[in-house]
Amino acid sequence: MIRLKHNQTRGLLILALIWLVGAVSDRIWFAIDNSVPAWDQADYLTGSLNYWQALQQIQWLSSEWWASFWHLSSKIPPVTYTVAAIAQQIFGRGIEQATLIHLIFSAILLTSVYGLGVQLFSIEIGLWAAALCQLFPGLYRYRLEFVLDYPLTAVVTLSFLCLTVWTRSAIRLSTYKQWLWAAAFGISFGLAILVKQTALFFLFVPILWVGIATLYRRQWQRLLQLMGGLVLSVVVFYPWYRANWLTVLTSGKRATIDSAIAEGDPPLNTLAAWTYYWEILPYQVSWLLLLVPIIGIILYRKRKEKYYTSLAWLAIFWLGAYFLCSLNINKDERYVLPYLPVVALFLAYGLTSWRGRWGNRIRWGSITLAVLLMLLNLFPLGGVAQSIALLSPKAEHYAFVGSRLPHAEVIEEIIQQAPYLRSTLGVLPSTPEINQHNFNYYGALRDFQVYGRQVGTRSQQVAQDARSLDWFLTKTGDQGSVPAAQAEMVQTIERSPDFKIHKSWALPDSSALNLYRDRTPEVEVTSVQAPSENVTLSQVTVPQQIQPGIPAPVTYQWIGSWEELQSGLVLLDWYQHTNSKFRWIHDHAFAMGNLHSVNTQTHHGTFQVTERMAMLPPADLPAGTYTLKATYLNRNTGKTYPIASPAVTLNIEPNAEPAAAPELDLLTQLRILAASLPQGPTALELVFEEIARINQYDPTQDYLTQTQQALSYRLQHEPQNLELAYTLALSRVLKQQVNEAIAALERVIQLDTQNPYAYAYLAFVHLYNWQGAPAAAALRNARTINSSVPEIQALSSVAALLQGNLIEAWHYYTNWQNS
Fold first, then answer.
1. How large is the angle between the packed helices 149-167 and 79-91, nearest 10 degrees?
2. Tell me, which fold does domain 523-664 have in CATH?
3. Is 629 strand, coil or helix?
4. C-alpha angle with apex 464: 462 to 466, nearest 5 degrees?
5. Is the distance from CB of 125 to CB of 360 less than 8 angstroms?
6. Taking a C-beta distance cutoff of 8 angstroms, is the pair 668, 586 a contact?
7. Fold category of 407-518 in CATH
8. Which of 35, 305, 397, 746 is the most exposed place for a label (fewest CB within 10 A)?
9. Which tens digits make up the pLDDT trace of 374-415?
10. What is the spatial distance between Cα 442 and Cα 773, in angstroms, rounded to a whole number?
11. What are the residues facing 560 on neighbouring strands?
12. Which architecture characterizes domain 667-818 according to CATH?
């Protein structure tokens, strides 16, 4: 390669050419690839569509909009999603469109690597390093998959470049420019943390090293610049982490320890845990691009002593990143992608170490062969000698050129059968090609009308799962990574008289994909020819007699305009004819909130909604005759009106024969769970276990919003109803609506004044919101009622710690440990 030490413009032109060649190769691969995204890739693609949907109605000055925006993804930071959402807003939705963001991140990565090469070595080494980044199997593979690690690699490298320039700017640059580079580092570091939390693994050691060196040299202004940059990074990433810190912490165990155990990763007390990434390095960079530069360094190691300081700086980054990534018990090759650009700089230095007449030939020969290896690893060209492929082992990532799998067809079939409804599909197999995440993604592409969820994962929940969904997908042959209960779930669906095979598809592995549908769906919607301004209840079907405390079947048939039905809740009171204080409620949105339309203008006329449900009269309800009152509540305006209903009665009879009933609706299940909250920690485990289950049935968690709207209205008329107050508080907490949850729990403690757990719940929400003093006040009341509850002592310790009372925090901590 021609030396370009004094020709920065020409260097940038060559850099642009390197980017362009990689971009063309990538887009050709996407053009011929017919594969479907696997688990993580599909999940991330769906996340980008969630952000795309949110960006359709941007409200820059609305705090509520920003709060909902930060909560769109409570575990995965939002930068990659947001950039992909913008790309899909411009170019349309789909895999090819979403992955266009990698062209941007490739440009950032190559420019940053080139900049590091220029700063630490020369233009020549910078260009070679950029070329190697295009040719490393570990990097070009993940340019072709929608995962967070390639964007993370780009932004981490950019941040490291800014830190490097700032570190070397003490002599070269003015004070003003030093501050600018410190600010650039802070912003890029904040953005890296907003791409993925593991950015800290790669930048922590260099930041610590620079900070200690600055302190040692007593460069106080430089230290102030570094601290200012770090503060600026906090400003960048603070809003999202402030909203989701608890979820990030609690999901960490599942993402690391649980995943490591499930995947069989080596434990930290074994040598394999610390050599894992060293052993896979040849696969990530290829033997060719690893050995040729290393040989060059060995043969010509004495010729470039002036670069030892630069090499040491790169070694600090790489060794620190290697140690911290190895310390993470969950291992995967893509988790260390951000240190590969630094490896590229090392190897580019090695390539340029070759001298003499063979130097250029070795460099260009290695690059040419590396390009050939990349093509052979990405495109199924065939007829290639294995001896050549051995130079880049375990790097195949062929474009799939066979027929497309039937994911889109499955989604389309469900929509055709239930065109007015949002449906949830229970996906029972879990292979890279057939899993809940990629069906969920293809459903999201169809305006989020179908959601895919994995159910049947626990034996004790199989029966409830089977009774809660109308659609299931099974597969013959290999089932993939599924729990033991999955076989029981498959048998339940296949043998149940309630389900039938709706349609089947043949798969390339000679297995069959079977779509099952409930013979009697929970909700059916049809268009009818009948004028209707207000919603009416045309028919109610119930048994003549039912037992209290046992679910009873009920069928409601509603008629109304699309606008009224979609925007409405129905408040149902089944009350004793002679004494209305004896009653139960059955509030819900029409069609359980599953009426779906992208644009309400597309659905004109009148519709009939048939709901086949179950209700639960309280166990202590006295015998007698009960009747129904229905009230319409508009979810948008709060408007109410009585719903015209047929005369209907039923008898509560303790000795009545139980009738077969479907699963209880989600709002009723939530009220049952909330009723156990006064029991404290003994009830919480079951509550959240059940919440996790029913959340699968309603992927949008609209049942929580329905609960809030219905109970807020009821509590205006029944302010002393403790059961409703607890249910409203639980729904607020589950929706992470902090201020509203605090208000709801303050109502609870006014009604349940002698329950220490009510105060503890309020304190917990205050602590979640980093409000130590209000939490401590609530906990004082809790300890006054019962000071022996361990959880209250633990919360008291945290509240004291947030207020800086270390002695008090230690006191409560020891009480908790000794309880």
1. 120
2. S-adenosyl-L-methionine-dependent methyltransferases (2.20.130)
3. strand
4. 70
5. no
6. yes
7. D-Maltodextrin-Binding Protein; domain 2 (3.40.190)
8. 305
9. 999 998 776 554 556 678 888 889 999 989 999 999 999 999
10. 47
11. 607
12. Alpha Horseshoe (1.25)
